[in-house]
Amino acid sequence: TQSTWGKLKQGAKAAHLKVAEVARIEGEKRNQRISDFFNSNTKRFEKYERLLSADLQHTIINSTVEQLKKLLETRKVKSKHLVYVFAKRCRDVALPRNLLADVNFDDALEQARKCDKLRKVSPEKCTGPLFGIPVSFKDNFQIKDLRATNGLAVQAANISPEDGLIVQLYRHAGAIPLVKTNLPQALFEMESFNLIFGRAINPWNDTRTPGGSSGGEGGLLAARCIPLGLGNDVAGSVRIPCLFCGVYGLCPTTGRLTTEGVQDLIPNKPSGNLHMRPTAGPMGRCVEDLVTAMRILTSAKHHKVPYLPFRENLWTDKRKLRIGFVPEEDFFAPSPANKRAVLEAVSALQKRGHQLIEVRIPNFEEMISILSKLTLLDGFKYNQEALGGEYPTPFLGRITSTLSYPSWALKILTVLLQVSKQNRPAKMIKGTGLLRAYEGFSHGAWFKKYQEEFFDFMRLKELDVLITPGQPTPAIKHSKGSDLMIGNAYCYLFNALTAPGGVVPITKVAPGEDKYEDPKNNDIFVSTVADCMNGTVGLPVGVQVVGRPYEDELVLNVMHQLEESVDFHEYPNV
């Protein structure tokens, strides 16, 4: 009845308002802790300001991890100075752009002072690869006494009692956890927006998103608020923010790294979807820093997955490689700047003596359709449960609404879309919804067969790695992520294939490239991309390097060669 429906709506609204208020309060608490930290250390920081010239502070924020280590080793700065400079920049630059989730300033300063003391009395013991270096982590990594929320209001007050295993590995390497960063509600979006920490803003352009789901990390690195970060990736969540923000990132082989110490969407209740598994991935301002992070993440200490140490021989391999490149896929044509980035990467590698062969990814469109079904095979029930009464963001709401339709209604909707020439939306919707067990098994077996065929394709072509677009566009406008998740296809496929993929910034959008046409498609995606391309001149654009499973080091090797050739190390003027 109408009254029953009204009561249900009122109950849902009350539940949402309750968790939303908790989210608001927890966000304010974080802001207060930041103010308290600087107010309680006023005299100390005034002293630091006198010691650290403007030029030296500029050097600090523009330095890579290796460069900061040299500054520390030569006693030009101390770790406490690094904590101060980066904390100040987080307050002044990152906080107004909603890039932060939580802060660890007090503990970081105390740890830094201990590092400085040890460096003074026993420098031979300061051997960790990140000794005395501040680093950041995405919100969902567990750090003692800090929040791990997954962007969910219902988890806004969720404090981690201990460091997770991944954070322990970083601490053992001498790293100083400084901040945690923003992410989307339930991590399921290519923008970073939630009720607790707000909408993350790309430091290159306030009208643009830094991406998702590790968007806070990408923005923090581009804004030079931290030298090294850690995100995680299940469908491009490391690579998209790095591409949108002009920094470097790696999505390692799925299953190679531990996931212990990453907060589940529902505490102590993993999703169970083994077709799309997340992996931790380092994000930084140069490839060598990603290598440092991977050496730490693949170390034997406390490892609880099959142990494969970092293979230095692949990282330093000097062979001339046979490399496939994909300028575009018909399913989603990249923008002119994104296609040019691939061709410039190809040219750079050819000049280094490598053999480059243009290829097309086999059955790309068909496999993306199957992956969409496998990703949503539970009818999105797990994610809906995780919301705990909170209203979903527009994108999650759209998925929830679509999947609530009965199968016959989805079939009619698919036909209507096809009749109106909305072919790609029709393909994405066709067959989505709650799958029966045997349907899930069937799709999974089909994709497993494709996985074998894909790596047979690489073997028969004798390809060492692939160069592809990582995204079809530069950073998109706010609130457009829900319309353009289809663009994740260039990343998404390789997660499911368990293939490692890294991204490298190559260039920026040039005048005249801020337009978009797709002669093979004429649907809502084309008009949305065309709108997003307006105002993109000057935004960074990069490429993706994809390797065979467990050859992460070779991917990093090729990334490093591209970095040396192109030398893109530009940052927004913020």
Topology (SSEs and partners):
Layout: H1 2-40, H2 42-51, H3 54-61, H4 65-73, H5 79-94, E1 100-103, H6 105-121, E2 134-138, H7 165-172, E3 176-181, E4 193-194, E5 198-199, H8 215-222, E6 228-233, H9 239-245, E7 248-251, E8 279-284, H10 287-297, H11 312-315, E9 322-325, H12 336-351, E10 355-358, H13 364-375, H14 381-387, H15 394-403, H16 407-419, H17 423-429, H18 437-460, E11 465-469, H19 489-496, E12 501-508, H20 524-533, E13 540-547, H21 552-566
Parallel strand pairs: 2-3, 2-6, 9-10, 9-11
Antiparallel strand pairs: 1-3, 4-5, 6-8, 7-8, 7-12, 11-13, 12-13
Helix pairs in contact: 5-6, 8-9, 10-21, 13-18, 13-19, 16-17
Largest sheet: 11 strands, mixed
Q: Name the strands of the widest sheet in spatial order.
A: 1-3-2-6-8-7-12-13-11-9-10
Overall geometry: globular
How many helical stretches?
A: 21
Number of DSSP strands?
13
From the alpha-carbon coordinates, what is the Rg to the nearest angstrom?
23 Å
How much of the polypeptide forms β-strand, as a percent range?
5-15%
Into which percent range does the helicity of residues fall?
A: 40-55%
SSE class: alpha/beta
Could you name the ranges where pLDDT drops below 50 across 5 or more consecutive residues? none
Overall average residue pLDDT: 93
**Termini separation:** 56 Å
